[in-house]
Design goal:
The structure holds two protein chains of two kinds. Chain A has 17 helices and 19 strands. Chain A is an alpha+beta fold. Chain A starts with 10 loop residues before the first helix and ends in a 5-residue tail after the last helix. In chain B, the strands form two sheets. A four-stranded antiparallel sheet of chain B has the order 1-2-3-4. A three-stranded antiparallel sheet of chain B has the order 5-6-7. The chains are: A alpha+beta, B alpha+beta. Strand 17 of chain A pairs antiparallel with strand 4 of chain B, so a sheet runs across the interface.
């Protein structure tokens, strides 16, 4: 019987801290909001903290884990005993998160993710750093064992090779490109709102007389011949707006500098590791064969700076919320010419350079254009009363726009089967290219809308595990029906002839 | 999957995995009609009730009452027509094909779709039967995959024995450590 291990004693502290966080905001609201010093039920609710503390201690005392030959066994609970068996082969990622406090105590919160559900399969809060390293080694050594027959699976502890590092300069650029200022601002706003300070703050800042208030309304009034255009106010609003944008970008830059400080991506054997964070240090491990899809993002700003972002989907987690920041960012920012090199590290058999992208069917542009024209005409009809004689130039503009959009949109659509994978690309302003290996295809669907059938076309959808709501779907629109059928059969049989492993 | 299909001990005259496109059981049309008639009854009752309540309660101008009654009648007729036509159309386009490799499910009337699931990607299956389905001897085979959009794909309107045969075929010869 392998020996059982326990959590780090600091676990009690962190369990308490987590519960305290839940009570912190109500507590603060209570203190700040108690204007007439009336301590109601909220104060008594704080007593709930006592059982919480007892629970934290009980959790620490009862929590045990051990490494069996093929699975990790976790036992917990005093009254309600729970024994969880997690086979190594099912574990998708072992992520470690270290906040500042964790690092001071030399511990880490470890999350094990398996294919199912959006929640981690097990959270070990908290383990000593060495134990976390051991867990990572044991889990992936165990998982690699049945796969040893596969070509290319080197010894689990191969030398680590750094694929990407993001120095401060790149992080500043990343902050500018990825507008994450909203995240910071949203958090701050939420806190202020929660504390009920927002009203007081706005009163103090603006003295109840916001000078730029209603500028849009006045502008419209001026447009329709009521009153003079409020030029002064317009200038003021524009300046405020510009300042706001600038602040947002600055916030975004600082967010990137803190969150992704010292980002590194490295390959060791057949797994990838990412590490980043100034205050909260995150290290995530992704076994290569667990990668479901790889997506290359190229927004307009990315292209301006000749950069791209690389994301992967693994089957663990839903790809949203917490999970996103941990794993999805394989390369938050990378020079475009280095993308092929990174791709080779991820999918050695796929080579996107010099590949012949298949365009959509010839009628695709006309269909896209028609849709745009219909929308433009409907919009103009709806606004015709309001716009009066202006409706014609607006219509012309909208039509020109839809023509340009259709041309660019269809021009950037493409798909190709290459090196045991299907690749699709789309989007013209925010370009995305996604790759899915045949072995990761779960289902293939052929769909035809009434419009498709009229044009003798169909679209092809490839379903993989771990595609979140926001991830780029692997789908090929506007295919000639015969070609769609052929692709459908090809992909189905390719998927059937490969066996899927998590 | 390179698995030896060998001798098939499954009952029935022919193999299910012959790659022939099979229509769904025709009894599913009758079943769908029952469901549609219930919908029709509810929609008509609601529409006429609204016409009665407005007509006698609010007492609007006569032409509005007429319009209301006409609208309710048209709606009722439309749903009745759909109840008659739609199940038949649905059945015409609903089909499935079982091959040694997996299953292909066809469906949809206006928006048509074909979903193909390789056998090796089937996580687990359910054969479900509602009370109405039981009366018609039909059942629904639910196939679960690890995918996202097609995490659950259903093959409805097949008779119970066929559903079980398809299920057995999809699950047969799976080694425990396939995933």
């Amino acid at each position: 019987m392998p020996s059982e291990r326990r959590l780090h004693p600091a676990s009690i502290l962190f369990a308490l801290w987590q519960q305290a966080q839940n009570l912190l905001l109500p507590g603060l609201v209570l203190v700040l909001g108690a204007r007439n010093s009336e301590w109601g039920w909220e104060a008594w609710a704080m007593l709930a903290f006592i059982p919480v503390a007892a629970g934290a201690i009980a959790h620490y005392l009862s929590f045990r884990y051990r490494y069996d030959p093929t699975e990790l066994v976790i036992r917990s609970g005093i009254l309600f005993r729970n024994e969880r068996h997690v086979p190594y082969a099912r574990i998708q990622n072992v992520d470690a998160v270290q906040s500042l406090l964790h690092r001071m105590l030399g511990v880490a919160e470890v999350r094990l993710e398996t294919g199912g559900g959006s929640e981690p399969e097990a959270i070990l809060r908290v383990l000593p750093v060495e134990a976390q390293e051991e867990m990572r080694r044991r889990v992936f050594a165990g998982a690699a064992r049945p796969a040893l027959a596969e070509p290319g699976s080197a010894s689990p502890e191969a030398a680590e090779r750094v694929l990407l590092r993001l120095p401060g300069r790149e992080l500043v650029l990343l902050g500018l490109i990825e507008n994450r200022g909203v995240v910071v601002l949203g958090a701050a706003f939420g806190l202020l709102w929660e504390l009920g300070l927002l009203d007081r703050l706005s009163d103090q800042l603006f003295g109840g007389r916001v000078s730029a208030r209603g500028v849009v309304r006045e502008l419209f009034g001026a447009l329709f011949g009521r009153g003079d255009p409020p030029f002064g106010k317009i200038a003021l609003s524009l300046a405020a707006f510009a300042a706001f944008l600038l602040v947002m970008r600055l916030l975004s830059v600082s967010w990137a500098l803190v969150r992704l400080h010292g980002f590194s991506l490295s390959a060791a054997g057949d797994e990838l590791r990412t590490r980043f964070g100034l205050l909260t240090r995150v290290s995530a491990t992704i076994p290569l064969r667990r990668i479901q899809t790889v997506t290359i993002h190229e927004g307009p700003l990315h292209r301006l700076f000749d950069r791209a972002a690389l994301r992967v989907q693994t089957a663990g987690g839903s790809g949203e919320g917490q999970g996103e920041t941990h794993r999805e960012w394989l390369a938050p920012l990378v020079r475009r010419r280095r993308v092929p090199e990174l791709l080779r590290a991820l999918l050695p058999e796929v080579d996107l350079e010099g590949v012949a992208w298949q365009p959509p069917a010839a009628g695709a542009f006309r269909r896209e254009l028609k849709a745009g024209v219909v929308v433009a005409v409907l919009v103009c009809l709806a606004l015709s009363r309001m716009l009066g004689a202006w409706v014609l130039p607006v219509l012309v503009l909208l039509l020109a726009w839809s023509g340009l959009r259709a041309r660019l949109h269809v021009g950037h659509l493409g798909h190709v089967l290459t090196g045991g994978a299907v690749a699709v690309r789309g989007g013209w302003l925010w370009r995305e290219t996604t790759l899915a290996r045949f072995a990761k295809i779960q289902a293939v669907a052929l769909r035809a809308s009434p419009f498709d059938r009229r044009a003798r076309m169909a679209s092809l959808h490839v379903d993989t595990a771990g595609g979140g709501e926001l991830s780029h779907p692997v789908q090929i629109p506007y295919l000639e029906i015969e070609r769609a059928r052929a692709l459908f059969l090809e992909l189905s049989s390719q998927a059937a002839s490969t066996s899927f492993r998590w | 999957m390179a698995e030896d299909e060998g001798s098939d001990p499954a009952p029935g005259p022919a193999r299910i995995d012959d790659g022939v496109l099979r229509p769904r059981d025709h009894r599913s049309v009758a079943l769908a009609r029952v469901a549609w008639r219930i919908t029709w009854a509810c929609v008509s009752a609601a529409a006429f009730a609204a016409a009665v309540v407005v007509g006698f309660g609010v007492r609007p101008a006569p032409w509005i009452s007429v319009l209301l009654w006409a609208g309710a009648s048209v709606l009722s007729l439309l749903v009745a027509w759909l109840a008659h036509v739609w199940p038949e159309a649905e059945h015409r386009h609903a089909a499935y094909r079982v091959t040694p490799d997996g299953i292909e499910i066809h469906g949809g009337v206006l928006w048509r779709s074909v979903v193909s699931i390789p056998r090796s990607r089937v996580q687990h299956t359910d054969v479900a039967q509602g009370p109405l389905q039981r009366r018609y001897g039909l059942s629904t085979l639910l196939v679960y995959t690890a995918g996202t959009q097609h995490a659950e794909v259903d093959l409805g309107g097949v008779d119970q024995t066929t559903a079980l045969r398809v299920r057995d075929h999809l699950l047969e010869g799976r080694s425990g450590d396939a995933v």
